[in-house]
Amino acid sequence: MLSEEHLDYDALREYCKQLRSLDSENAYHSLLEFVGDIVPFLMQMCHQEHDPHVKAQLIEIISQRKHTPKVFQFLLQAGKHKDPIIWKMAIDGLVSIGGAEAMSCLRALELLNNLEPTKRNWILEAIEQVEVN
């Protein structure tokens, strides 16, 4: 695995920028296939991003790349976001990862106060999906 100082941050920034363009599909796949531990960088980019669609793409990429405690915490926080595009992608990411850690995050989301019915139903369905797998 490449150390952090060997990552091509210029290329990573360019791919993240391209997520907003007509070439977003190529950028998406390039980030999925990028060699090295880019998840911390992608999390940082996601926190800085204002476009919910780009933020959702970054969340999806992060959930497919690496499954560390920080990723689960990140997805849990994204699951609390007010924008449905973002919280749905975070919950979908937890479902695709599956396992005990994902279930813990989903249960934590289920316990939040003042959940809209749509969000509560989405979370309950996600819990069922993780339980089945």
Summarize the structure.
The protein is built from eight helices and no strands. It is 73% helix and 0% strand.
Question: Can you walk me through this structure?
Answer:
Helix 1 runs antiparallel to helix 2 and helix 3 runs antiparallel to helix 4. 29% of the residues are buried. The chain has one domain. The protein contains 8 helices and no strands. With 133 residues, the chain is an all-alpha fold. The model has no long low-confidence stretch (mean pLDDT 93).
Question: Layout of SSEs?
Answer:
Blueprint: H1 9-18, H2 24-33, H3 39-48, H4 52-65, H5 69-79, H6 84-97, H7 99-110, H8 117-132
Helix pairs in contact: 1-2, 3-4, 4-6, 5-6, 5-7, 6-7, 6-8, 7-8
Q: What is the straight-line distance between the termini? A: 30 Å
Helical percentage: over 70%
Assembly level? single chain
| Gyration radius over CA | 15 Å
Mean pLDDT rating = 93
Q: How many helices in DSSP terms?
A: 8
* Low-pLDDT runs: none
Structural class, from helix and strand content? mainly alpha
Domain module count: 1
- Proportion of strand residues: under 5%
Say how many strands there are: 0
Main β sheet profile: none
Order of helices and strands: HHHHHHHH
Which term fits the overall shape? globular
Structural features:
globular, 0% strand, 133 residues, mainly alpha
